[in-house]
Write a structure and sequence with these properties.
- With about 375 residues, the chain is mainly α.
- The chain has two domains: about 240 residues, HUPs (Rossmann fold, 3-Layer(aba) Sandwich), CATH 3.40.50.620; about 90 residues, Orthogonal Bundle (Tyrosyl-Transfer RNA Synthetase).
- It contains 16 helices and five strands.
- The strands form two sheets. Strands 1-2-3 form a three-stranded parallel β-sheet. The chain has a two-stranded parallel sheet with strand order 4-5.
- Helix 4 packs parallel to helix 15, helix 8 crosses helix 9 and helix 10 runs antiparallel to helix 14.
- The longest helix has 29 residues.
- It is elongated.
Amino acid sequence: MKKIILTGDRPTGKLHLGHFVGSLGRRVELQNSGEYDKIFIMIADAQALTDNADNPDKVRENIIEVALDYLSCGIDPEKSTIFIQSYVAELTELAFYYMNLVTVQRLQRNPTVKAEIQLRGFAEHGEGDDNQQRKGTPVGFFTYPISQASDITAFRATVVPVGEDQEPMIEQTREIVHKFNSVYGDTLVEPQIMLPSNAACLRLPGTDGKAKMSKSLGNCIYLSDSADDVKKKVMSMYTDPDHLRVEDPGKVEGNTVFTYLDAFSRPEHFEKYLPDYENLDALKAHYRRGGLGDVKVKRFLIAVLEELLQPIRERRKHYEQHIEEVYEILRRGSDEARATAAETLADVRRAMRINYLEDRELIERQAAEYRK
């Protein structure tokens, strides 16, 4: 079996460090490893519209932002296929068929769906103002796991690199694949999840210490942020509220600055930017016993992040001056993605025995019966 990756992002804004450690950085590594036969990277505009139907311009304008972030991080269109979800109509048809394999009750139990409904202020049940003045959940948003299953299976993905919060979604895809294959025969490929190997990357907190970096919470460091913006955001980061003086012992656990250092720092960074310490463990030990100020640690983090982000900014500047080229990359990728999805859809229709017009055996048999 070929080794194929499918991954992507919703175009609701520029991508941030949470995206990078959760999946994007790993995509570049996997792309360059040469271990995979094909990598499909999707800009999930159709999914973004499920909770932005009244603001389509938000999605429209951010297609290019996400594409620029992909290319500036090192996604190579010669090695990976970047495409726009809504330009692959086969995905919608697959999702429609999969809806018959999933119950409403199963969707309601999906932890990611429940969390996202609450985050966006949708009512879990009912419509309009009957539920704490919250509007009802759009059907398209509620059925997001089914749409994601369509995306994954359309490209016969064997591996899906995602953050920890997406684990229930991949599990539901596996359930759909199992159900389809049980009913219609072995047709779809069951994907495996690939989580970040670094525990700190499973769910990067926001700069305010909240559980997740999120555009809606305004606690992001964007991949396209200027050096000044990064510095300001890091210097305002949540640390240990009880570490009031330099000499005070400090807590590393739950300290956002150290969580970021767990995610991004490497041993060579200490030799380059903070030679007084052998490694991160030594820095943590000093902070715990007291005598190390937050400012010094934050300045080190700024240097670490700048080493990562400065080349990304430079590549982005190039592509910002060649927007037509970026759109051509998206067009070619979408054409290739649609051709691949069409092959899977043909197999699905054949397995479901709804390929009436293509089934010559069916046509000839019925013609012969009616001639008798």
